[in-house]
Amino acid sequence: MPVPLIDLTRDKAQLAEVEAAVVRVVRSGQYILGPEVENFERELQEYLGCKHALSMSSGTDALLAPLMALGIGPGDEVVMPTYSFFATAGVVARVGAKPVFVDVEPTFLCIDPARLEEALKKCARPKAVMAVHLFGASFDVDTVLAICRKFSVPLIEDAAQAIGTKRKGRMAGSDGLCAGWSTFPTKNMGGIGDGGFLTTNDDQFFALCKLLRNHGQAELYKHNIVGGNFRMDAVQAAALRVKLRTMEKVTAQRRENAARYRKLFADAKLTEWAQLPTDQDRHAYHQFVLRVPAGKRDAAIAHLRQQGIGCAVYYPIPFHRQPCFQGLGFAAQDFPVAEKAAAEALALPIFQGLTEAEQIDVVGALAQFVR
After folding, report:
1. Domain 12-244: CATH class, spelled out
2. pLDDT tens across 350-367, in order?
3. 3-state secondary structure string across the chain
């Protein structure tokens, strides 16, 4: 039977709860912000252990608003890893600032602290560091934060893929000035459309971002600053409140799936052919990304898809090779780890609800290809 990369419809009981929550909102007549959104924000604060949570229209806007709040613009520089989803770099370009790319470390493919420090030394006007918790693994927060303090720049955590992730027993996203999160449907806590949220422990920064979320409006028709429309719909908040209640279960299921893959790969004697993701304090496994021989990766994908196995490449083109950033003057040879990862990465199904039989089929199909 085919094995999808992700199936968002398997938990029928939860889907029924989501449907009921949506109906509740429809009947309420309160569709933008309001009680559903406020309750969702309070529940996020409790789950993540943060002082403030601010719902947003998307994970992208949850990264854009902090840059606007910091007044980052033309001539400023924001340092980030070159290997991530495009929004990380895109929001910096949108405010007119220059994204400064650095290579990633080889274990978790998160920002390399040594390269980060080198880049900051070369920056003329560094205004922030935006580091990414990639695929559900945390970057080296302690080291990165120490470097940020050394250069007197704030740390913005891109936690779009990190809901449920823990490092040293603490939830990801609570160490920097703020963190931006995504609730895109395929995330571990996915909504029924676009959405995201911002978290921070800084009262003044929270108040400023809250103003920015709604056109800078302090009171009706009085705009203290120029903001944007980054509001979350009440329907999204209602659906996400249902999803949030099961986050610990979801994280446990994904971690169990990862552990099962490790056993299946070992049993199939594939651990020398494929490098499996390294586990962490609490890796949330938003993605389960293998590293396979670069010359075999695309053929392996074709074989898996022929067998009905869902798979994907995250990410085939690092930021420094994106056409829109060619004018920045970065060279591929300056990012050897990211270049290697882009040629070797292969993501397999890891979603909650994935069955043991399906995982056996996935590994069996890969074993057939290797042999």
Report:
1. alpha beta
2. 999 999 999 999 999 999
3. CCECCCCCCCCHHHHHHHHHHHHHHHHHCCCECCHHHHHHHHHHHHHHCCCEEEEECCHHHHHHHHHHHCCCCCCCEEEEECCCCCHHHHHHHHCCCEEEEECECCCCCCECHHHHHHHHHHCCCEEEEEEECHHHCCCCHHHHHHHHHHCCCCEEEECCCCCCCEECCEECCCCCCEEEEECCCCCCCCCCCCCEEEEECCHHHHHHHHHHHECCEEECCEECCCCCECCCEHHHHHHHHHHHCCHHHHHHHHHHHHHHHHHHHHHCCCCCCCECCCCCCECCCCCEEEECCHHHHHHHHHHHHHCCECCECCCCCCHHHCHHHHHHCCCHHHCHHHHHHHHHEEEECCCCCCCHHHHHHHHHHHHHHHC
